[in-house]
From TrEMBL:
The lineage of its organism: Eukaryota, Metazoa, Chordata, Craniata, Vertebrata. One of its GO terms (cellular component) is plasma membrane. Keywords: Membrane, Transmembrane, Transmembrane helix. Choline transporter. The chain crosses the membrane at residues 78-97, 104-127, 153-173, 178-197, 203-223, 249-280. It is found in: Cell membrane; Membrane. Its main location: membrane. InterPro entries: Choline_transptr-like. The keyword Membrane applies. The keyword Cell membrane does not apply. It is a multi-pass membrane protein. It comes from Balaenoptera physalus. This is Choline transporter-like protein. GO terms for molecular function: choline transmembrane transporter activity. Belongs to the CTL (choline transporter-like) family.
Length: 361
């Protein structure tokens, strides 16, 4: 194969004096074509060992990656333990929802009311204690700070009181809805008993997301070597992108967010379809053999456009929020209080809008 520079003819590989400059050092490791991306891969396994060694060297030299990997490796037992704990707690919660949903709802309601009352009482007690404390004992430099703390405690106590009153009114008005909530919990417990494979849906979704992220990173690497190969001052070749290609990474980032949201929305639609099939089938013996596969089939045949549109709407809201978060992180410590307040307010409003659109979708 023509391994040398194109300016040298293959017949001159061994006869020309320029061969030592224009040709690579031989022997070149034997390679074989692979059916992806029109590339050749080395046949000798030792080449991959060298690649792994170079990758490890790169990771160890990169301070951010090194801190990230060392942090994960240091606390890997804690991470695995918390993952197992969350799985066990999820299973326990499913059993609780199935058998003691009525008690659970009332316990949560009572705890919420008691927590609101307790928090409000503590805030008023702290305010009264701060107000009764002698001001003569405070040095003049800290007098303004003490007054600010007293004013803040008063605002917090009034806000907590208003919240508690509103909560009591909501509980009073919506007390009949508690029975509906209990019934929904009961049905949810039955769904998990009859459709146990729903538990594994998050695993399949995570697997699909990992595959997509690997593909996205590979495409990003290919984008890094697009454009024209130009020799720089040091004699190395670098790829300089010009024209529309230099903006393609924006398109690529939007695709990352959109398709990730699309995969998550497919999971939600699949779960919803399976639950609806179970709920509206009066005779449970007439359920499809696999309601989850039936839901996937229905999703692919009729609802992919719905999922794509809904996830695109979420993307349109998520991107401005991420831009604002990036600006906020870049300006940290440089902006004034007003700009910081406006940025955080915009980020919070976009987050709320995103959550509302998620529920609407």
């Amino acid at each position: 194969s023509a391994l040398c520079s194109y300016s040298l003819k293959p017949s001159e590989y061994t006869t020309s004096s320029k061969a030592s400059v224009l040709c690579p050092k031989l022997p070149v490791p034997a390679s074989a074509p692979i059916p992806f991306f029109h590339r050749c891969a080395p046949v000798n396994i030792s080449c991959y060992a060298k690649f792994a060694e170079a990758l490890i060297t790169f990771v160890s030299d990169n301070s951010v990656l090194h801190r990230l990997i060392s942090g994960v490796m240091t606390s890997k037992e804690i991470i695995l333990g918390l993952c197992l704990l969350s799985l066990v707690l999820s299973m326990i919660l499913m059993v609780i929802i199935r058998y003691i949903s009525r008690i659970l709802v009332w316990i949560l309601t009572i705890l919420l009311i008691l927590g609101s009352l307790g928090g409000t009482g503590v805030l008023w007690w702290l305010y009264a204690k701060q107000r009764k404390s002698p001001k003569e004992a405070v040095i003049p430099e800290q007098l303004q700070v003490a007054e600010d703390n007293l004013r803040a405690l008063l605002i917090y106590a009034i806000s907590a009181t208003v919240f508690t009153v509103i909560l009591f009114l909501i509980m009073l008005v919506m007390r009949k809805r508690v029975a509906l909530t209990i019934a929904l919990f009961h049905v949810a417990g039955k769904v998990f008993i009859h459709l146990p494979l729903l538990v594994f849906q998050p695993f399949w979704t995570f697997f699909a997301l990992v595959l997509f992220w690997v593909y996205w990173i590979m495409t990003l690497l290919f984008l890094g070597t697009t454009g024209s190969a130009v020799q720089n001052d040091q004699g190395f070749v670098e790829f300089r992108v010009s024209g529309p290609l230099q903006y393609m990474w924006w398109y690529h980032v939007v695709g990352l967010i959109w398709i990730s949201e699309f995969i998550l929305a497919c999971q939600q639609m699949t779960v919803a379809g399976a639950v609806v099939t179970y709920y509206f089938t009066r005779d449970k013996r007439n359920l499809p053999f696999t309601p989850i596969l039936a839901s996937v089939n229905r999703l692919i045949r009729y609802h992919l456009g719905t999922v794509a549109k809904g996830s695109f709407i979420i993307t349109l809201v998520k991107i401005p929020r991420m831009i604002l978060m990036y600006i906020h992180s870049q300006l940290k410590g440089k902006e004034n209080a007003c700009a910081r307040c406006v940025l955080k307010s915009c980020i919070c409003c976009l987050w709320c809008l995103e959550k509302c659109l998620n529920y609407l979708n």
